[in-house]
Write a structure and sequence with these properties.
about 475 residues, mainly alpha, 4-stranded antiparallel beta sheet, two-stranded antiparallel ribbon, 16 helices, about 5% strand, globular
Length: about 475
């Protein structure tokens, strides 16, 4: 069995390297977009609350030296270019890579045969579409495609043959059967989850709970080893190479202090009352989200199937993703004026708001595809930073557009939108508790904090949409360090 364990380790290492590469490319594309944008604006930097990578706020003046209209067009144009390439890569190059690949992987592992799901064209198309879709500003994340890419690596490295390339290597030939192939694909999918969330146990439990129906204890240990290697490789690369954005920390969101388990022995039993409420709200909103998404996709299929010509149908799907991005880039409030400072934050474009306004706070919550906004929402001791208006505006905006984006012609995931949406209404509940009981400074009342309930709300909506329980709990604890 040594060769099986060796392959599991190689698959985990390859998936970890791929996960690191995806995050680096996404960050580089976002940075490139901002570098282009800054050419059109007079930029002054000073310390403040909202951080763009470091403890710096970027205030943009719309005076004579700044052109906010050209800035908006530049950011929108770069986002549109990425969306067109992202959608085109899955529509015209590899249709099997759209939209996320996770349902197809689950179907295959449970006995359904799907053509072109595991070939080199699907791998390349999914990779390109994923990084461009996330960097463009669409409300999505790289999680679903990363599971698909991990499964592709599991299939390719275990079979070591490709009909597309005409390659058939004469090693590990004993694994070229249906049962072993499914085992390595299962391990690769789990490694994809482990690499994205830095959660090896979560990756194992996800494959057990959600992905595969054929399971045994040997496969469990081998999948866990594969997930460990993926997590270790991603964190090693993130922390070892000088000059890269990421630094070595376990967990998807680096916390300055523990978020939920402040002191387990001092946890007040009253904290479970709003937690139960959040769980019920997460289930309700999750059901609404899934139902709305199913209806949107049914309408989408009916409309596109009514177009007889294939090339026109694919072009229409591409134009839909472009339209979604344009809607995502519409400023919530147009507040332009001479000599005034504005806080510029991007979701594929520039949102311009007076810095102290509720609209400015709502724009700040939409920065960098949700991940940075989630980090803000999870911070403890920040009950004054976001008001009800900004949270409700961002919640409605993100809920609708993320539901619309899911199922469009790009390789994208839903985990970031699920975490973000849940964190928004969780923080609203936390603010209500703060307004009722006040800000608590003693250790027994420390649970009354909007950041804590943002984390619980994120887990509740994630569970409401995905129907995950045990694996989600482990993933959330791992993500939150």
């Amino acid at each position: 069995e040594w060769d099986r364990w060796l392959l599991m380790g190689l698959i985990g290492t390859a998936v970890g390297m791929l996960g690191f590469l995806i995050h680096q490319i996404i960050d580089s594309l976002i940075k490139l977009k901002w570098d282009l944008v800054e050419n059109y604006l007079q930029v002054s930097k000073r310390n403040g609350t909202w951080s763009m990578g470091t403890d710096v706020v970027i205030y943009l003046s719309t005076g004579q030296d700044g052109n906010i209209h050209m800035t908006w067009l530049c950011a929108l144009g770069s986002g549109l270019a990425m969306v067109v390439l992202s959608s085109g890569s899955v529509l015209f190059f590899c249709p099997a890579g759209s939209p996320s690949g996770l349902p197809e992987i689950i179907g295959y592992l449970n006995g359904t045969s799907i053509q072109h799901l595991f070939n080199i064209k699907t791998f390349l198309g999914t990779f390109v579409s994923c990084v461009l879709a996330v960097a463009s500003g669409l409300f999505c994340g790289p999680e679903g495609p990363m599971i698909h890419l991990g499964a592709l690596l599991g299939c390719g490295l275990s079979q070591l043959q490709s009909d597309t390339l005409g390659v058939h290597l004469p090693i590990f030939t004993r694994f070229r059967n249906s049962a072993d192939k499914r085992s390595f694909i299962t391990a690769g999918a789990g490694a994809g989850i482990a690499s994205v969330f830095r959660a090896p146990i979560g990756g194992l439990l996800f494959t057990l709970e959600e992905v595969s129906s054929f399971w045994d204890i040997r496969l469990a240990w081998q999948t866990f080893f594969c997930c460990l290697m993926a997590t270790f490789t991603t964190d090693l690369l993130s922390s070892s190479l000088y000059g890269f954005v990421y630094r070595g920390h376990f967990g998807f969101f680096e916390a300055e202090k523990r978020i939920i388990f402040w002191n387990l022995l001092d946890m007040n039993v009253l904290a479970f009352v709003p937690t139960i409420l959040l769980g019920m709200l997460g289930g309700l909103l999750g059901a609404i989200f899934v139902s709305l998404n199913i209806k949107i996709n049914k309408l989408r299929m009916q409309f596109f199937n009514s177009i007889p010509k294939l090339s026109l149908r694919k072009t229409s799907k591409l134009l839909e993703t472009v339209f979604i991005l344009v809607i995502s880039c519409v400023p919530l409030v147009a507040s332009l004026g001479s000599g005034r400072n504005f806080l510029a934050l991007e979701v594929g474009c520039i949102f311009s708001f007076p810095c102290s306004s509720e609209q400015g706070s709502a724009a700040a919550l939409l920065v960098e595809n949700g991940k940075r906004g989630i980090t803000y929402l999870f911070k403890r001791g920040t009950h004054e930073e976001f008001g009800y208006a900004s949270l409700c505006t961002a919640l409605a905006f993100y809920f609708i557009l993320s539901c619309w984006t899911a199922g469009s012609a790009v390789a994208s995931g839903l985990v970031i939108p699920m975490l973000y949406t849940g964190a928004l209404y969780g923080r609203i509940i936390g603010l209500i508790l703060v307004s009722i009981f006040g800000v608590q400074t003693n250790k027994y009342g420390a649970w009354i904090d909007p950041g804590l309930f943002a984390a619980i709300g994120a887990a509740s909506f994630f569970s409401g949409v995905s129907r995950l329980t045990i694996s989600l709990t482990v993933i959330m604890v791992s993500m939150l360090s």
